[in-house]
Specification:
Layout (H helix, E strand, L loop, with lengths): L4 H17 L5 E5 L4 H7 L4 E5 L18 E5 L9 H6 L4 E7 L24 H10 L2 E10 L7 H8 L1 E10 L1
Length: 173
C-alpha cells in the first residue's frame, strides 16, 4: 500500500491512539468505505469492518446490524448533516473519532462534483466535545494534530503550526 508522508504521519498517530485504548481482540466498525487507513489498521491486526452503502443521516439504526464493540469515524462526522442520531443510537461502548478542525484561514471543504464529499461541519474542539457528551459519551482522551504540507506559502506555513485534526477517545457514560 502506497502512502504519502502526510498519510503515513496521520495513520501512525491514529494507530498510536487506537492501540492505547483498543485491543486487537475487539471488533471495530469503521464508518465509511474501505480505505487506506482501514487497510493500514488491518495490517496491524485489528478486526475492522467498514460500514457503507447507506446514508448515515437517514438510517443511523443500520449500524446496529453489524457486529462490533468499537465505533471509529475517521474524518466522517463532518460529512453528516446531523451526526447526533448516529452517535446516540450506536451500540458501541467505545468510540474513536477524528475530525478536521475549523481553520480561520481556510474555507470548509466542498467538492461540487460529489454531493457526499462536502463538509457540513468543520468543528471547533468544544463543539465536538459538546456533541459527544450530549450523545451519551464520556471523553477520556483528546489530541490535536497539525497537517503539514510540502508546499510553500503562507497557508502551508500556517498548517504547520495550526492544529487541523481533532482526535477523541470516548466511552459510554
Amino acid at each position: 500500500m502506497h502512502m504519502n508522508k502526510r498519510e503515513e504521519l496521520r495513520f501512525e498517530r491514529t494507530h498510536k491512539m487506537l492501540s492505547r485504548f483498543i485491543s486487537t481482540d475487539e471488533t471495530i466498525l469503521d464508518l465509511g468505505t474501505p480505505n487506506k487507513l482501514s487497510s493500514f489498521l488491518k495490517g496491524k491486526n485489528y478486526k475492522i469492518e467498514s460500514a457503507f452503502g447507506f446514508d448515515f443521516d437517514l438510517e443511523p439504526e443500520k449500524l446496529n446490524e453489524y457486529n462490533y464493540e468499537v465505533l471509529t469515524a475517521f474524518e466522517v462526522l463532518e460529512h453528516l448533516v446531523s451526526p447526533f442520531p448516529l452517535l446516540r443510537s450506536t451500540k458501541a461502548t467505545k468510540l474513536l473519532v477524528t475530525v478536521p478542525l475549523k481553520l480561520w484561514f481556510a474555507k470548509a471543504h466542498r467538492n461540487i462534483n460529489d454531493p457526499y464529499d462536502q463538509h457540513y461541519h468543520e468543528f471547533e474542539s468544544w463543539q465536538l466535545d459538546m456533541l459527544l457528551e450530549k450523545a451519551g459519551w464520556q471523553i477520556l482522551h483528546r489530541e490535536k494534530w497539525v497537517a503539514p504540507t510540502g508546499y510553500l506559502g503562507i497557508r502551508p506555513l500556517l498548517r504547520r503550526v495550526t492544529p487541523r485534526f481533532y482526535a477523541i477517545y470516548a466511552e459510554r457514560k
